[in-house]
DNA sequence: GATGTTTGAGAACGGTCGTTCTTGACCGAG
DNA sequence: CTCGGTCAAGAACGACCGTTCTCAAACATC
């Protein structure tokens, strides 16, 4: 019953996540989304309710498909040094944690629902560091901050530390 | 000749920097600025040319009055651990580096002039870490990333690592 | 093939955006 | 006091914002 949907919802959410990650929430207009996703305005509002609804869906997907898997992979690192190097490599290869970073800075403070999702992503990174470095070492939050800080440098387009520098640093912390 | 200016330009720039730091560039409207600064629209455009011009002035002031002095102070630390602890203490006490962080995420990628200013601020932090930790150690960029990452956590309103945790971490890196 | 329901296409809504213009208040110089 | 120039006050501009509405096209069901 009814006309079949002509767009892939998951693919649309993924495209929205990329747009939001690059231009930010306020910097991405509904027109940008309609053009970039190839989804009609009406369909977008029918499915997601609002621009914010689409943003929350994109952030949710970003967590489920990128941040949490990354955190799970980092848990398998055989030391904090390897963990750091692995995280940086993930940042070089794509938009990993980009939307998480953008959301944390731009929206987490003013939108509680975004704040909860951001907190979930950060907690996952914390947990990975803690699992590798040893619980109670008290350093997990700091090193998780380092991970996001390195992501920030990569995003800002300014040359971040080289992989060698990261490894050298990693040698210091274990 | 002419009517004298009825507002303090430096104070206006400072107020603008706070607004931009909290709400971001796109999240701060000219109406917000007019209200928050107590400066008339016409005067704002007469003096700063545009919203972007005021933003650049605010970021410039943020660097000169907060980030660069902070970097200079960090240079005097007697070790990387003290440096980290000092940086975190500065974040707790105010908006230090807040606009730098916001600009790095929201604008540095799309506005080259903002990118240059952000790069200047980050280079100052790098230099401070390098001066304390020893040049060529290759860790300066990474630890500077940690500094901004900790600032990010504080901003997002999620409980960051405690001062004790930072000190414990600092013990590992020297 | 006719019916019923949902989609896609795009015009249109009021509101707000950044910016400019017009007008009158103000003050130093002559 | 008069004049010239700068400022403050606020209305007004076109453009764009997120959102809604109308209507024809496209299927599943009967």
Write a compact overview of the structure shown.
The structure is a homodimer of 174-residue chains. Chain A contains nine helices and no strands.
What features would you describe in this structure?
2 copies of one chain form a homodimer. By secondary structure, the first copy, chain A, is mainly α. The first copy, chain A, contains 9 helices and no strands. The longest helix of chain A has 25 residues. The mean pLDDT of chain A is 88. At the A-B interface, helix 6, helix 7, helix 8 and helix 9 of A face helix 6, helix 7, helix 8 and helix 9 of B. The first copy, chain A, binds a DNA duplex (30 and 30 nucleotides) through helix 3.
Topology of this structure?
The structure is a homodimer of 174-residue chains.
Chain A: H1 9-23, H2 30-37, H3 41-48, H4 51-75, H5 80-92, H6 98-106, H7 112-133, H8 140-155, H9 163-173
Helix pairs in contact in A: 1-2, 1-4, 1-6, 4-7, 5-8, 5-9, 6-7, 7-8
Chain A binds a DNA duplex (30 and 30 nucleotides) through helix 3.
């Amino acid at each position: 019953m009814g006309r079949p949907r002509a767009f892939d919802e998951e693919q649309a959410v993924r495209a929205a996540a990329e747009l939001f990650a690059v231009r930010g929430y306020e910097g991405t207009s509904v027109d940008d989304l309609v053009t970039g996703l190839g989804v009609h305005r009406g369909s977008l509002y029918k499915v997601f309710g609002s621009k914010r609804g689409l943003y929350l869906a994109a952030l949710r997907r970003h967590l489920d498909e990128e941040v949490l898997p990354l955190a799970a992979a980092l848990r398998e690192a055989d030391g904090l040094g390897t963990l750091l190097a692995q995280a940086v490599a993930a940042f070089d290869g794509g938009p990993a944690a980009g939307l998480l970073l953008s959301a944390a800075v731009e929206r987490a403070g003013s939108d509680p629902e975004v704040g909860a999702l951001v907190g979930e992503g950060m907690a996952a990174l914390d947990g990975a560091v803690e699992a590798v470095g040893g619980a109670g070492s008290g350093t997990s939050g700091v090193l998780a901050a380092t991970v996001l800080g390195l992501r920030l440098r990569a995003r800002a387009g300014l040359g971040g530390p080289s992989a060698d520098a990261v490894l050298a640093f990693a040698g210091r912390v274990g």
